[in-house]
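[Q] Does anyone have a clean structure-token version of this?
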Amino acid sequence: MRFADPKNDIAFKKIFGDENHKEVLISFLNSILDFKGSQSIVDVTLDNTYQLSTIEELKDTILDVKATNQNGEEFIVEMQKKDGGDFSKRSLYYTSKAYVNQIDVAEKYLELKKVYYIALVDFNIFDSKNFISRHLIINQETTKQDLKDFEFTFVELKKFNLPINLCDTIAKKWIYFINNASSLDLIPAEFDNIKAFQTAFNTANTYTWKKKELEYYDKVSLKKGDDINALNFAEIKGIKKGIEQGIEKRNLEIAKNLLDILDNETIALKTGLSIEQIKSLRDS
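[A] Here you go.
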């Protein structure tokens, strides 16, 4: 088997956003949000279901999964590989926009339902060592959650490094799957007899994908690689430029101290500066 990388936009949407296997998203949400008993999600309606026919129209659009549970509560699940520096603000924007769009008349406030935002990020955001963090609106004095309609959960994938044999919860197994599926040749025994995972792995098996899906998957993968290379090049170039500027600044200071005792040609030879730079120092 050759499993797709769930962190790839198209793979993520195909695995978690398909109406034909909603049990995958339901299992993921219940485990990550720690829903149990009466709070558990038993069914979801996908608001932007995965469709092969729309792939060519997606271009560079961020792919997320949006769903509504049996109580009308909304869930936004997003996979993000790169931090643009504004991720936390964009998370707030997405969530508040989804909340506001539930009603078209301002006076219908009682019809507003809770919105959960779940972000899987391939970079670090918070100082905590925890790979899952939950953010609520809390009363500072009482620590009670009086305002309950917004909830944010962040899964920082780079902080998770557990081997599969130590993944003792469904949530940990999901994060392991997202981080490691593309490096596996077979479905690990730890996922046996769990229908949602069997479906997820079978969906991620690229040998079952259509040609158009594979083409878009490769296109997204190549673009991500190009973005990383461009970022690395920019960082290296910036470091090199900083070193060069530091050396030139040091040489200018040395040249200033030699103006009273050496001629321009000798100072240029000793410091590597140009004659014109030495002359400019004398005239300043």
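[Q] Thanks! Anything notable?
[A] DSSP finds nine helices and six strands in the chain.
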